[in-house]
Write a structure and sequence with these properties.
Number of helices: 13
Order of helices and strands: HHHHHHHHHHHHH
Radius of gyration: 22 Å
Distance between the termini: 44 Å
Strand content: under 5%
């Protein structure tokens, strides 16, 4: 959604407040485009890269630099006038703007972390019973692999939590869990198919509850989806699920279940940054486009059922399906010819 150009009067550090648009609007940017980011560095590198691109095309930069520039461009597009202010500003002003944006994203992340910590205990509680032994809402020391329930949800897919040796090694830290070892709670009904790792991935009820809690409203978690939107989604004109927002919620839920007390870019105990990036890497992999497209359709049906982004599967043997198949076949043949010509 286009935003008003408020960058013409970027405030001084003394005038900065939580109501500043660079803070409030960037809350949403962190949730839906990119979080766990060093924004002063993102802006500084982006401006320098734009100067280099006057002589060097973006394709000649490293994959990481190209990806970072994509995030930088999305930030500029979401805030008209920001690029001009950055180009005309001093190095100190650029860093100051980055700090304001970082303040907005970290503040929103902290609010979500605090809100989800308690809510998730309600969602994972056995129906009609209390969690045993109890998990306290104001302390996380007993969470993570220290508790049977949270440990079973955080157990990496492919490992057997019910195996006493595995359970003990996870509890003691003998088995170190990296961020790219995805927990079983990401899967519907917490069931992982070793033969088809995509099957039910990122379709768990726990994730949809958390997504609605943050983006629509806490009250929408236990109700059928409505045509109306509220809270963060409505405030920012959001009517479809984004790849980054999906990864953001998964990261928040994973952290909420853990025993770690701080969610940040430097959080090494839960390796949250690696986890977040591993999901984004999957979503942006061209080879996974079919599976990911189906996943987004599923998510939009859960959260924004009336949105135009909620596309229904194409009917088999319909004229449209045959047109799509013919197009894909032609594209595949063209790609094959290019590969042969370049070999």
């Amino acid at each position: 959604m286009a935003m008003e150009d408020n960058t013409s009067s970027i405030p001084s550090k003394r005038a900065t407040s939580l109501s500043d648009p660079l803070i409030s609007h960037r809350c949403h940017f962190g949730r839906t485009v990119f979080t766990l980011c060093n924004y002063p560095s993102l802006l500084t590198n982006g401006i320098l890269r734009l100067e280099k691109m006057e002589e060097t095309p973006l394709e000649d930069f490293t994959a990481e630099e190209q990806w970072e520039h994509c995030v930088f461009k999305q930030l500029l597009d979401s805030y008209p006038g920001l690029l001009e202010r950055l180009r005309n500003g001093s190095e100190e002003e650029i860093l100051h703007v980055g700090e304001l944006i970082g303040k907005g994203t970290s503040g929103a992340r902290g609010d979500d972390t605090k809100s989800l910590k308690s809510a998730i205990l309600d969602w994972i509680s056995p129906k009609g019973a209390a969690i045993q032994p109890p998990l306290h809402r104001n302390s996380k020391i007993d969470c993570g692999f220290n508790h049977e329930l949270t440990g079973s949800l955080l157990c990496p897919a492919g490992l057997d939590w019910h195996n006493s040796e595995t359970r003990e090694n996870l509890h003691s830290g003998e088995i170190s869990v990296c961020g790219d070892q995805w927990p079983v709670f990401l899967y519907a009904n917490h069931i992982y198919d070793t033969e088809d790792p995509w099957c039910s991935l990122l379709r768990s009820r726990l994730l949809t509850c958390a997504y609605k809690h943050v983006f629509t409203s806490p009250s929408s978690v236990d109700k059928d989806p409505k045509a109306t939107r509220s809270r963060n989604a409505c405030l920012h004109g959001m009517n479809c699920v984004t790849t980054a927002s999906n990864a953001y919620i998964a990261t928040q839920v994973r952290f909420a279940l853990s025993s770690s007390s701080v969610l940040s870019q430097t959080d090494t105990s839960t390796d949250s940054e690696t986890f977040y990036h591993s999901l984004l890497d999957l979503f942006e992999d061209p080879d996974e486009l079919k599976e990911f497209s189906e996943l987004l359709i599923w998510w939009n049906c859960q959260v924004f059922p009336t949105s135009s982004a909620t596309k229904r599967p194409i009917s088999v043997n319909s004229a449209l399906s045959k047109i799509r198949i013919k197009h894909l076949a032609a594209k595949h043949a063209a790609d094959s010819n290019v590969a042969i010509a370049s070999s």
